[in-house]
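Sample entry (230 residues):
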Amino acid sequence: MVLKGRRREPQDAKPKGAGSQDGGPGVSGGGEIGRRGVYALAASAALAAVLAAAALARRSSVPTSPGQSAIGGPFHLVDQTGASVDQRVLRGKWSAVFFGYTYCPDVCPTTLAALGEATGDLGALADRFRVVFITVDPDRDTPKALAAYLSSPAFPKGALGLTGSAGKIAEVAREYHVYYQKVPQGSSYTMDHSAVVYLMDPQGRFVRPLDVTVPPAAIARQVRVAMDAG
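Predicted structure, serialized as tokens:
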């Protein structure tokens, strides 16, 4: 199962920003997702996310341990500052890699907000952890759009946003066994996509999928256990 796209604003509509007029419409309410709003979204999106993650694990054979790992690999993308990066950007910190897009109305902002809370719950370990958000909608998610979107105070501080050409996004999606598809909707379109959060170690190796349907403290506990074991 994948996350089915919902109704979007027209493609040429200006996204409503997170503290900026250029942010994606997935962040609303004057540029900030309040915690109450986030958990209201979570209540409606949690079941879809659970089913999507479980189904994708079966469909794409997402491993649950490093010994089975075929997740991750080389990529050449652009970050939200416009700088070219490759897979080496994952080295040095534990990374939660998540594929989504700025026009996503529910699961993407809910997941990012939960990861933001979890990062805070890591305490001193937060300096060793980073969220990496890779778009599946490169036509709309330019570096500038990603920068505005990820600037939301509800999202993880220091999150890295990555985009690139359609071909480069397809390549990195294959490396991570990610499904996505553009779905026409009136004069615009939406995106169907899988929603697995991949925990990678400081060498850029896959460790485990993170369950982000649990409270943020429990997400942080998953990361902390992996750090202690690694």
